[in-house]
Design a protein that fits this description.
Chain A: GO terms for molecular function: (R)-2-hydroxyglutarate dehydrogenase activity; D-lactate dehydrogenase (cytochrome) activity; FAD binding; metal ion binding. Chain A: One of its GO terms (biological process) is malate metabolic process. Chain A: Its main location: mitochondrion. Chain A: Its cofactor is FAD. The structure holds 2 protein chains of 2 kinds. Chain A is of the alpha+beta class. Chain A has 20 helices and 16 strands. A 7-stranded antiparallel beta sheet of chain A has the order 13-10-12-11-15-16-14, with helices on both faces. A 5-stranded antiparallel beta sheet of chain A has the order 5-6-9-7-8. In chain A, strands 1-2-4-3 form a 4-stranded mixed beta sheet, with helices on both faces. In chain A, helix 1 packs antiparallel against helix 2 and helix 2 packs across helix 15. The N and C termini of chain A lie far apart (58 Å). By secondary structure, chain B is α/β, with parallel strands linked by helices. Chain B has one domain: HUPs (Rossmann fold), CATH 3.40.50. The radius of gyration of chain B is 21 Å and the shape is globular. Classes of the chains: A alpha+beta, B alpha/beta. The interface between A and B is large, with 45 and 38 residues. Strand 13 of chain A pairs antiparallel with strand 11 of chain B, so a sheet runs across the interface. Bound molecules: flavin-adenine dinucleotide. Flavin-adenine dinucleotide binds next to strand 3, helix 8, strand 9 and helix 16 of chain A.
Chain lengths: 556, 255
């Protein structure tokens, strides 16, 4: 068997590239960053591991404006020490190897440092002159202790795919990047518990687990670049939360380092453990503000051998809700994802990437559903019945079902490719919101009307806004309101904020469902949290990080 | 002539995105609980047949055919959802002796005679055994012209013009019906099975048959001695810097 043709993958990719390439990247065990060169990618991630220059992205990183210039209201805190040559020497001596330190102090290495300074959205850019890449927990501990003793501010950084500007410095904070902590420590095939370094790339972890017939309980579009430590630090939600639940439940233990160098060794592999306050929960979603996560233990479910993916076109948002209810009802335990994209999103995806959409004609809304189960026959029967039902009752207007893994990957790319495609015109204002499902899409319409009324939306360069679109994890009542723009523009921002936050507050929603607070949402936390809650949070921050060196200017 | 009577033989194989594993006894590849799909080249064949019809070439019938285990039904339904008019399934149980290319070709000859097909579109190979013989053998048995590795097919009346992929370029050939075409990757981009068409496909006729019905002696002529996996890729090593890389390359004798 063996066979050159089974690995026609590559051949097929060249032959049918629009159809075959994204999915191959998705499904086959590859470790490269998923979006490398996959589209025209003006939003090419500023991957730290891209040595020197940022690959692929047409506009150089330099084009990203400094956060300090865009947001002059944020001032450098003078309590922090300015970095000196002596500090740099200390770190070089400590970390030894060349690849562990990037600095533009003794030489001009601004090119090398740029990818660590600017974020994935090309919205934020810091002035860091030093990047440290420790390889062990011990090194992290020594770095932090030294920084804490010397009042040097730091930014923990994983894959730098965060969407709220939390992973890059604002001023001259030292970047502590975890990419060299990339070892899988252990995996127990009976319990399904994985223990690994924080810097392991999500896709690498998942491919490792696939070999063992298990699955990482989180999946998201950035899987080829983001790190599991970064995922935990942001409490990322992603595409399968509906099925596997949140990291607050799946992460069983954490190893982390506090700013004073204390190593918290809480890498437990216990499903149940009611012995006191559950401190690790503070690090899940803590966004690097109280310590650096260096390792995690996480419960990984069995991988489902039977997976199906279908993609529908629907007449209205009402219909999308009906489809969701029908899916929950009829597919119940095998439903593993339910994603919604409005028609505008899909049109822009097509415009930005040239990707041919799976359905003929245009539909106002699209949904993608995935089922995962253990028995192909059982699942297929359920799915068939469901599909028949939603067609007959005209809940969906049209749809396709993937017949093989290649098509599954293709259909998924209609959802996963959205984030990147929307950056195509220059930038995106992103709002990641929890809202009651029934009201979810009204916000998108309201925002579009608002921007249109003041003349900011248009087809040519004189209008900053391309469109206002909505998509998201409908199964989790999580809307991504995105406003793709040709340039970041204060006028647009003024129309959007605090309008969007006020809207969400009125519905008792959350202004940050899964992306976190970072620098973007910090000023607005009050729209979703009471004064008492914020006070308690500040107490925790002060308790663990009394000097405030951890990821300053962000979070709360 | 009343129109093309197209026969498209298709095969159920391990999904091409799945990495096959050899069983412990090293006699075969593990198939239990492994995702199976239509051989990708066969998807191209079905698609091309349907496109001929859509291009208003007179097509009176597209018949999808598969010999294989009961589950081959699924891919026949897919073929019908893509646009084939009906299906024929010769059930070969997993426990029965498996067909070899010559056996399949002989079987197909009988099907062609029975169905009065005048165009057979096959995949150039199936990705499980990679034999790439069936189309050619069938052409031999029928004594029909054949165009292999098609990347473009044009039909005008009785004349079929096929652009073939050959090493470093293309070759264009022409023949009169009836004929055999085998498909290559650049031929087209197979469509998705749409929901309405999946529903319709359920109602299209699917005939079940056995090898006996065709009075075929398809006893295997080959014996599989051993199946092994390719040697695993050796893990890479990371070097700290350029000097480290140079000394490593020297060590490996690459410099
Ligand atoms: C294309 C795309 C799709 C996405 N889809 C989703 C999605 O579906 N759901 C979702 O929830 N999010 C999504 N995200 C955002 C998501 O938060 C991040 O992709 C991911 O979780 C961050 O991981 P990272 O390693 O890149 O962290 P970074 O971006 O490097 O860091 C994020 C934050 O965590 C901190 N941090 C990082 N590592 C550590 C550590 N080891 N210890 C302490 N703090 C640390 C940083 O300081 C920063 O505040 C998406 C992003 C992209 C670009």
């Amino acid at each position: 068997m063996a066979t050159s043709s089974r690995f026609v993958a590559s051949l097929r990719r060249t032959a049918l590239s629009p159809r075959a390439s994204p999915c191959i990247k998705r499904i086959r065990p590859v470790t490269q960053v998923r979006w490398t060169g996959s589209t025209s990618a003006t939003s090419e991630p500023h991957q730290p591991d891209a040595k020197g220059t940022v690959k692929g992205g047409p506009a150089p990183a330099k084009a990203v404006k400094f956060t300090s210039e865009m947001y002059p209201e944020i001032q450098r805190n003078s309590k922090f020490t300015n970095l000196s040559e002596e500090h740099v020497k200390y770190f070089k001596d400590m970390l030894g190897s060349e690849s562990a330190v990037v600095e533009s102090f003794s030489k001009d290495a601004s090119e090398d440092i740029e990818p660590y300074n600017s974020d994935w959205m090309r919205k934020y850019r810091g002035h860091a002159k030093l990047v440290l890449k420790p390889a062990t927990t011990e090194e992290v501990s020594r770095i932090l202790k030294y920084c804490n003793d010397n009042m040097l501010a730091v930014v923990p950084q994983g894959g730098n795919t965060g969407l709220v500007g939390g992973s890059v410095p604002v001023f001259d904070e030292i970047v502590i990047n975890l990419q060299r902590m990339d070892k899988i420590r252990s995996f127990d095939e009976v319990s399904g518990i994985l223990v690994a370094d924080a810097g392991v790339i999500l896709e690498v972890a998942d491919n490792f687990l696939a070999e063992k017939k298990h699955i990482f309980p989180l999946d998201l579009g950035a899987k080829g670049s983001c790190q599991i430590g970064g995922n935990v630090a942001t409490n990322a939600g992603g595409l399968r939360l509906l099925r596997y639940g949140s990291l607050h439940g799946n992460v069983l233990g954490i190893e982390a380092v506090l700013p004073d160098g204390t190593v918290i060794d809480d890498l437990l592999e216990l499903r149940k453990n009611n012995t006191g306050y559950d401190i690790k929960q503070l690090f899940i979603g803590g966004e690097g503000t109280i310590g650096i996560i260096t390792g995690i233990s996480i419960l990984c479910p069995q991988r489902s051998p039977a997976v199906n993916v279908a993609y529908f076109g629907l007449e209205s948002f009402e219909h999308a809700q009906k489809a969701f209810r029908a899916a929950k009802n009829q597919l119940s335990e095998i439903l593993s994802a339910f994603e919604m994209m409005d028609g505008r999103t899909q049109k822009l995806l097509n415009k930005a990437t040239g990707k041919k959409l799976p359905l003929e004609g245009e539909h106002p809304f699209y949904c993608l559903i995935e089922t995962s189960g253990s028995n192909t026959d059982h699942d297929s029967e359920k799915l068939q019945n469901f599909l028949e039902n939603v067609m007959e009752t005209e809940i969906v207007s049209d749809g396709v079902v993937a017949q093989d893994q290649t098509q599954m990957g293709e259909l998924w790319s209609c959802r996963e490719g959205v984030s990147e495609a929307l950056g195509h015109w220059g930038g995106v204002y992103k709002y990641d919101l929890s809202l009651p499902i029934a009201d979810m899409y009204d916000l998108v319409n309201d925002v579009r009307d608002r921007l249109t009324e003041v003349g900011l939306v248009g087809d040519d360069d004189s209008h900053p806004v391309v469109d206002a679109v909505g998509y998201g994890h409908m199964g989790d009542a999580n809307l991504h309101l995105n406003v793709p723009v040709r340039r970041y523009d204060k006028e647009v921002e003024k129309q959007l904020e605090p309008y969007v936050y006020e809207w969400v507050q009125k519905k008792n929603g959350s202004i940050s469902a899964e992306h976190g607070l970072g620098i973007t949402k910090k000023p607005y936390i009050g729209y979703s949290r009471s004064d008492t809650m914020i006070k308690l949070m500040k107490q925790i921050k002060n308790l663990y990080d009394p000097n405030g060196i951890m990821n300053p200017y962000k979070y709360i | 002539m009343s129109g093309l009577r197209i026969l498209v033989p298709i095969k159920r194989v391990i999904d091409y995105a799945v990495k096959p594993r050899v069983n412990r006894a090293q006699t075969a590849v593990e198939t239990a609980n492994v995702k199976h799909s239509m051989n990708p080249f066969d998807e191209l064949s079905i698609e091309e047949a349907v496109r001929l019809r859509e291009r208003k070439v007179p097509v009176s019938e597209i018949v999808a055919f598969s010999a294989g285990p009961p589950k081959s039904q699924d891919i026949l339904r897919t073929a019908m959802a893509m646009g084939a008019d009906r299906g024929i399934h010769v059930v070969v149980e997993d426990k029965d002796p498996q067909l070899e290319p010559l056996g399949v070709a002989k079987l197909l000859k009988k099907v062609v005679d029975e169905q009065k097909s005048n165009l057979v579109i096959l995949g150039k190979q199936s990705i499980d055994d990679d034999a790439a013989q069936t189309g050619q053998m069938l052409a031999g048995l029928l004594n029909w012209p054949q165009a292999t590795q098609a990347s473009k097919v044009q039909v005008e009346g009785e004349t079929v013009t096929v652009t073939k992929e050959v090493d470093g370029g293309v070759e264009t050939v022409r023949a009169k019906l009836p004929m055999i075409i085998t498909t290559d990757l650049r031929l087209n981009e197979p469509r998705y099975a749409s929901l309405p068409n999946i529903m319709k496909a359920k109602k299209k006729p699917l005939e079940k048959k056995t090898l006996k019905d065709y009075e075929l002696d398809a006893a295997p002529r080959l014996k599989t001695i051993k199946v092994t996996e390719p040697p695993p890729r050796k893990g890479g090593v990371k070097v700290e810097d350029v000097d480290g890389m140079i000394s490593k390359l020297k060590e490996l004798g690459a410099l």
